[in-house]
Amino acid sequence: MILDFGSINMDLVMAVAALPRPGETVLCDGYVTKPGGKGSNQAVAAARAGARVAMAGAVGDDGFGQVMRATLAKEGIDTGLIATSDRPTGVAYICVDAKAENFIAVGSGANLAVRADQVPDDRLTPDTLLVLQMELPPEQNWALLQRARARGCRAILNVAPAAAVPEAALRDLDLLVVNEHEALAIAGGLGLDTSSPRAAAQALSGRMNLTCVVTLGGEGAIAVGPEAGFAVPALPIQPVDTTGAGDTFTGVLAAGLDAGLPLDQALRRASTGAALACLALGAQESMPTAAAIDAALPRLGPTTSIG
Questions:
Q1: I need a surface site. Which of 98, 141, 233, 252 has the fewest CB within 10 A?
Q2: What b/e sequence results for 185-208 when a residue is b if at least 16 CB atoms lie within 10 Å of its CB, and e otherwise?
Q3: Residue 273 has pLDDT above 90, yes or no
Q4: What integer is the mean pLDDT of 253-262?
């Protein structure tokens, strides 16, 4: 099964005509509250794609926390490893403009109270796929990752939002998911090739003995592993809101790999799922089911091999 160690937020989403500039106030008709947080989002995406998922994180003893627990449980996600903190539940303020671009400010709240020791050793097995992001205290990520590696647990890290990743942590990973800017930053910090996202992925894979997946927005994604590399296109769509696309990609990719799919097939499902998630407002509400991904897959262009 998948164990997601990550953030849990309530999103407050506002549709605006244009994103505000520094010092500017932009008015809109209202706002909606929607479940979010990168950890929670990826857990929901994986569950809807057909995986068994457990969530480890923290919420506050407040209304948003109660809603988030209930929302995750409704998706069939095991919530037994979610702690209750004296900090408030995390909140993200999201503005989305008429072009589906967004900006996001996050008040971390209870996410800062999450600790690696919330996850007992018996949940870290060779049959577990650990999924990590960067909205928790990073030292807790690295502590859990080290324990997971020692117990034979596979691990995926999505470096979002962008932050530094220690070389030791990279060596404990099986799969690294980054966008093109994050790929160049991580490779550059290690003195590796940064001439292109593909070159950075190849260098990271070779140095760290991991699979590096680079998302390229409307250009699709590439994956370079120790044995093979692939490129998949993006599904052609007219986006409404791109907020949950990256989280959907990682969650669906994790679900595919957890189900035993080859990397190229899991990558195709992830690219398709990410595109479908852009067709409605909000992160979790727009995430597709396995059936929706299956139905859209034939519209995705061909996969190509890369050296």
A1: 98
A2: bbbeebebbbeebbbbbbbbbebb
A3: yes
A4: 97
